[in-house]
Records
---
Amino acid sequence: MPRKSSNVRLLRPADAEAVVALDRRRSGRSRAGFYSRRFQALAGDSRAFVAVGAEQDRELAGFAFARILDGEFGSAAPVGVLDAIGVLPQAERAGLATGLLAALTKELGERGAGELRTQADWTEHGMAGFLSASGFRLSPRVVLERALDVPAGDDPDAEELPVRSMAEADLGEIIRLDRKITGRDRTGYLSRKAREVLRESGIRVSLVAEREGRLAGFLMARLDYGEFGRTEPAAILDTIGVDPAQGRRKIGRALLGQLLQNLESLRVERVLTEVEWDRLPLLGFLERAGFRHAQRLAFEKIIA
């Protein structure tokens, strides 16, 4: 049977229902909330979010979503993150996924991203094979996770610090503190990230710590209900920063401890994050906090 011709284009808000239905056919579960937030993000910031769809006979037969990051854990250049891709089962061998990925990569490159990243469970052999055939390679970044049922352990030297939910009014102090930590002005990145965790996330879980009336640390996290094909809720830890002058006062531990308490009340079972393999101080901190290597692989592809 000859292959049907396909047309790849940018997705529009009117495609939301078709995307949810297609994904439900593939996964067996509805992730309407995840895709609703993705379409809202597309409408609010088309430079930072990209979505393409493939049509066959004027019906949606595949989709791919990505976002552009600039600054997660010190990243020095914009990168694209492929966090959702799917095609109809009967179209899996028709080259739709390859066409979607090519269109998505082109759009990301035009927006300044020099690299495309994604994740897959190590048991997803079909996805790993597709990524390999599409020019991806294993990334030096490691995916870490922490189950909430793992005891945090008591720290007799920990200092009691006020930790509260992050507010939009904290952004100026967060930018100032981040500049002190990194030596870079990441106003654009932090502003976008604050907007994502405070406005676009359904539940606010980002935190700040204060000492003597001044902001001493911050943690940006969000709840995820669908990225990288996951169907169970998880929290994603994007960024954590502590005033270097306060580094030995266990501020990071206090922030993370409060996050875990908050997530437990929300019945979220685990926290995930992704870190460069050579960020040894950060990896050491996360290891002491109970994080372990997740059963997921990180992939990356250079965008020409």
Note: The helical segments are 16-27, 32-44, 96-110, 125-133, 171-182, 187-200, 251-265, 280-288.
---
Amino acid sequence: MKSFMTHFTGNDHWVTGSNVNRRSIGTCGALIIAAFVAFMALTGCTVSNNSENENAEDMEHTPLKFGATYMTMNNPYFESLDDSIEEVVVANGDVLLTRDPAQDQNKQNEQIQEMLDEGVAAIFLNPVDWKAVKPALIKCKEAGVPVFDVDTYVYDREYVVSSILSDNYNAGVQIAHDMMKKRSSARIAIINHENINSTSLRVQGFLDTIQGNPRYRVVVHEKITAELEVAMEITKTIIDDGIRFDVVLGGNDPTALGVLAALQLRRVEDPILIYGIDGSPDGKTMIKQGFLEGTSAQFPIEIGNTAAETAYRYLRGESVESNIIIPVKLITQENLVDYDMAGWQ
């Protein structure tokens, strides 16, 4: 700009000549002035745009915090579920705070309070005890923080915005049909998680399907925490007590794998059909090797993505479904090739 002004001012001294020259230069000067005004206007626009950019930078997205707590992280299923939620959250420039209560409902309630104190915008919850989590749900409601229930219901569903979970009842139905196709009669052991609605629904679907058929009889039903080590110990006790069974319904894959470990430790060689529910990489590997009969596959990646997207829609003021059910599919050796052996669905 300085060189342009110097050139314009420097021509001033020779417009003192004839009128013709003065008129000519006057015309030229008018053009130059017009050009200068245009230049200044353009320069002003540039400054304005820069200012707008600076304002936009000042108004950059402030990351939201989301909370997530699951009954345990000692299960690859919940790791996959959490990863899929976090993928959506991070893609939106936000942060996910994940907590592990290690099967302790009191601890989970404390964790939820801590997340409220952190100022989370929403909480993804998988309860340790579907009834005893109520005090924490009340705190969330009082704080105005929406709760999204994942994988299993809470008992007091009026405190959650939306429940996103597998078709747990149908998982049990699928397994019962497969068992009845392969065995004309059975002595059944059921081992599932206590105080967790999802595994209770799985068992109920199984029991309703075999109801009224005396050839299929439940000889033992144990309710424990759904972890491999715990299932292994309780199965060893069942074996040591002399209870005979030839079919096992495990509430999830870790439970089924714990049963398998106990049978091997006790050197039980009888042909026993063992079913899990999850569709985990370990479960699919055991099916391939002939140790597990089947697993009703859940889709934690889809559940997590759906839960996170539902939370964002709700926070934007959009309406969301209160109950979202993700279908399950039974995996056996017959269709194992259709699934990723190393990952989750």
Note: The chain has three domains: 2-58, 65-166+300-326, 168-298+334-338.
---
Amino acid sequence: MASKPTVLLPIAAGTNRNQDLADAFVAAGADVNQIPLQALRDGDAKLSDHQMLAIPGGFSYGDALGAGRLLALDLRTWFEDQLLAAAESGMPMFGVCNGFQALVASGLLPGETAPAASLAHNSNGNFECRWVELSPTDSQSPWLAEVDEPLWCPVAHGEGRFVASDIETVEELDLVALRYSSNGVQAVGEYPANPNGSVNDVAGITDSTGLVFGLMPHPENHIWARQNPLRGRSNRGTCLSLFESGVKATKG
């Protein structure tokens, strides 16, 4: 029997959604190593010992200097060589909420050849905690290989508004993976379907390879039907297919 791929899940001070994310990847068929950043700095584990990197949500370092920026600085300062080597090897990478912010702030998303992007304060100035619908695009990202219907999961952020210096080029490069929608129809900027005012209703993006993927909503919080607040009153499926796609991507 083939061994399970192993996911490296780094933990920083302020990370608080790591167990949820670990549970999601375990349910999708992976093993997960949750390792504090200090242990990674000390060399107790290496990214190359794993088949995937997954950065969880939370408020890393209390969001000092802005969402995900200090975690991004940590990634660039301590692990840049490992990250570049992993990216060149085709390792799938995943970042959710604060982890997505860190991937964007570090430059891993949308990538060096793409226009600059950022996650700004929600357009209404409020912290948004609500369930949203996400529709997959025509992206060929391996992360969407098993996703054939809209996803339903919660958001919980104050700085989740996706902005880009050149959104037209981001679209032309097919870097948008998920959009906020309502009943399968793009939200076209309408609140609350688009909870933060993201340009073009962007909820998640990839790099040019499709292997580095990040999103603001929390699909790890709708893996089991019992997590759906509308269970019994809704036929919306779970988000497990997203994680199953990522795990399969580690196998080539």
Note: The chain has a mean pLDDT of 94.
